UniProtKB/TrEMBL annotation:
Database matches in SUPFAM superfamilies: AraD/HMP-PK domain-like
Domain of life from the UniProt record: Eukaryota
Cellular component GO terms held in the UniProt record: cytoskeleton
Protein name: Class II aldolase/adducin N-terminal domain-containing protein
Amino acid sequence: MSPIATSSLRDASSAELSSKVAANVKVAPAHGHELAHQTPLQALSHGKVKLSGPPSFDSFAEKRQWQLEHMAAAFRHWASEDYVEGMSGHISVRDPENPESFWTNPIGVHFGLLKASDMILVNFDGEVIGGNDSRPPNTAGFLIHAAVHKARPDAHAVCHAHGIAGKAWSVFGKRLEMLTQDACKFWGDAQGVYDEYGGVVLGPEEGERIAAALGPRGKGCVLRNHGILTVGDTVDEAAFLFTSFERSCRVQLLAEAAAANGLSKVIITNEEAKFNCDVEGDREVCYCEFQVYYDWEMQKSNGDFRN
């Protein structure tokens, strides 16, 4: 058989197959029914055994210790992700008994060395009232975190570090686009942009402006010429959201580079982005997402960060 005849048969076969596939493709129904009778975390757990969200505690002391251990694990994870840049970067966790105070890390200690016992308790007036008194907290960290905790009583944890991708994307002063499923955690008012830059934060006004830019429902905020910030109901949620935000910034930068060479970006629709945000941005889901990192840090260090 001639090459031309073979080519014609191949084209016809391909067209027939495409027609059959198209006939079997159905338009996806509108979302919503998947979560009608179950939580997002239950929906993600296939079968009878379901993952569970954050634990409950019988005392403030138990919850406080648990928070500090998970806070230390978050720093160990950040060290693994190479978010260390000198003395920059901080995490805060609201105290369960005294909600107008929060725990934060001492300035000048490598994230990979931090333990639960290293954390400092500071009140909204900036006074150190408990915990480690051998080193001070970071001034910029206190001013930013205090402002966010005051503005957002629901935000029990705040994360900020100087990751490479977050800093690089921040120079544009723009929101992340909904390019991937992971980025959809920051759809709509779950993402803010602080489109100003006032230098190193050494006064309360800058922290207050950052908190305002985050908004009442923000989970992540781009800080122009500075980096990114995330919040959560638990330190686990906030820490996982930070890693996801940082990686989404990297994906955006890679996509922008490809688009500059003529490729077109396909943005996820608002309907799909909202659905993804409702599922993957759920506080219990984000808590569970972080546990894979917590377990890995436990394995690597034999749990020494809990001390």
